[in-house]
Every structure is written in C-alpha cells, then in structure tokens.
Amino acid sequence: MQPAASSWSFEEDDLNAITRTISRFLAETGARSALLVDRSGQLVTTVGDPLGFDPTTFATLTAADFSANDQLARLIGETDFTTLFHQGERESMYVADIARRLILVVLFDNRTPIGLVRLKMKPAVEELTGHLDRAFSRARASGTTQPNILAGAGDEIDELFNW
Amino acid sequence: MSMINYAAREINCKIVYYGPGLGGKTTNLEHIYGKVKPETRGKLISLATENERTLFFDFLPVDLGTIRGFNTRFHLYTVPGQVYYNASRKLILKNVDGIVFVADSQLERMEANLESMQNLYDNMAEYGYDLTSMPFVIQYNKRDLPNAAPVSELQAALNPGWEPADPAKARLSPDPYHAGENLVSQLPTGEWVERAQYFKAVAIGGEGVFDTLKAVSKLVLKALA
Description:
The complex is a heterodimer.
Chain A: E1 9-10, H1 12-29, E2 33-38, E3 43-48, H2 55-75, E4 83-87, E5 91-98, E6 102-109, H3 114-142, H4 154-160
Antiparallel strand pairs in A: 2-3, 2-6, 4-5, 5-6
Helix pairs in contact in A: 1-3
Chain B: E1 3-5, E2 10-18, H1 25-35, E3 45-48, E4 54-67, E5 70-78, H2 86-93, E6 98-104, H3 110-126, E7 136-141, H4 151-158, E8 173-174, E9 182-186, E10 192-194, E11 197-200, H5 209-224
Parallel strand pairs in B: 2-5, 2-6, 6-7, 7-11
Antiparallel strand pairs in B: 1-2, 3-4, 4-5, 8-9, 9-10
C-alpha cells in the first residue's frame, strides 16, 4: 500500500463497493452492524442494523481510542495494534485498521463467536484496502480528489457566516 | 484534514481549541452547545476527570449551514490544557483543519500561555504542520477580570507574527474585526509581519465565543476554496 494522498474523498462508486464488502462480512459472521470511521474521527458510513446511539460521537471516540492504543503500542515497541477487541457481557466490538487511514468497527452480540469475526475480518480488510487504494491512486493521478466544490465560493462563504 | 463526503453531501472539518489549563476552552464549547439550535448540533462529549478537568478531550459537532448543496459540519475539540497530558494533546491535533488558541488574559497566567503556545508550535511541527500557513485564531479570554493584561501586551507576547511566506501577501491588510489595526503590516525596519486574527472574550458569559468560531470556520472553508 502506497502512502495515502494528503487529501482525498469518496465517490458514490467507492462507497457502494465498500458497503458491499462490509454487508457480505456482516452476513457471513452474523455481526449486527459496522461503522467505517476516518482516522481523524469522522464517520464515513454505517452498514447493517440501525444503531441505537449517536454515530458521530461513536466515531470520534473510536478514533481517539485507536490513536491512544497506537501510542501505547509504540511505548511497548510495536509500530501499532492493527486490531482491538472490546468485550462486553452481551455486546462486543472488534476494531480493525484499514490502510492506516480508516477504522472498521464491527458490533456483534454474544451469538457471534469472536473467532469467526477474526477469521472473516482478514479478507474483508484486504478487500477494503483494495477499494481505498483505488480511491487514493485516483486522487494522486488527478492531483486533486474531485473538482473542488468550494472553488470560487469566497462570497458564499462570507454569506454563510453572516449571522 | 477536511473530508468531503460526496455521498452524504457533507464537508467535515476539524477545529481544535488549544491553550493553557483552566483558560476556558471547555467553556467555549459549552457556550456554543447551549446557544446553537439542538437540531444543528450533536452531543457535547467530555472525557474529563472527576473534578471536571479535561482528561482527553471535549467534542462537539455543529452544522454551520449549507454551501453549494453541501452541509458544513465542524467537529470542535478541546485538548487537556495541563502540561502533564501532552501525549493526549498531540493526538487530538492530528488532521486538524483550524486552531483556536484560548489564552488566559490574567497577568499571572502569561507564563502558562507562552508555554502552551510553544507546545502548540512544537506539536504541530512534529506532524509537519505549519501554524503560520493554516487557519489559526487567538482568543484572549477572561477580559472581564481585574487582573487581565492589556491586549497589546498579550499580542506582543503571544502573537508577535511571522514573515509572510507569500511575497504577494506583503502589503497592508486591515484587520476586519479591529478598526485601525492590520493583520499584515510593515515594521519600521521595512520587514513585513503577518499576525493571526485575535478576539477578546469572556467565554463564561459568551462574549466573543461566536466571533471566534465564525472567524476560524470561515478561514477553514476559505482554505478549501
């Protein structure tokens, strides 16, 4: 995996491909839902059963959790922890790094064996890395990720803060 | 790093409130949380100790309106101000789009302000970010206190300015928020100096809080345009 572009964005097709991979993973494991979160804590998408909590908050805390654990890894001489597992009495979550850019969080209850999540996670992560690689290389090839939607929007930005 | 989600038609940006302990960073977020319409903001999350000192960060997502069909969503973070928590502080700065430095105006906090500003520059440099070329505003908080230092003194200490990297910027540029003052000006020696925008505030009463937020958000969006 090449270093990611400094700025990037998703297109509809990227998101569709990502959603398909995650949906299949959920079906194979019986896990309930998954969130894809940017390393900076921004929610990219959710897949699966509706979430009973605020996903924005969840995304932020996930990224913070992951970053804190990254630093812990370094302190003990590892470069990073590529996965984290938080086990609850009924609900658990498994968190995996995707291309050092995104974080996949899988939520599952005690009917889903953790071993199955682990087993199916690896190919899913590889597939997701492939989707992201394509998005990054497109960003690199075109110099920018997309036509800049804010280009020349100076006046509109002024207007937006006219309160 | 801002993220444009074309599928959800959202522009997401990250703003970090930085500054010395007990300077009013969390108070800024609390005021914003209390004042914006509930439908345009999320929950205010505080990872704090039992005595309400920020341990990791506070977080508040706010929507500031729509531009070209895209919802502009700002993620506001504070960092723990206490010197001890530098590792956590540095984590929060990752992928930041804009910085607000909340200085404590009290004379006896000058040293703490300076230390925190230096720490901000150092932490940013470690990520390879250059504070002088990104959206950055300074808020002088606690202006209502009798022991508040004069703004000119705070400016001299915390916002001495830098040489504009772009020669095209080397021309007089008035400060839109302070009549008679300039954001870019020429020293008697002939050198040009650019300073960060600053705001006076009494965050506990809300004064200056939204001016600061507006200014930094505007700079962040303009940096994308």
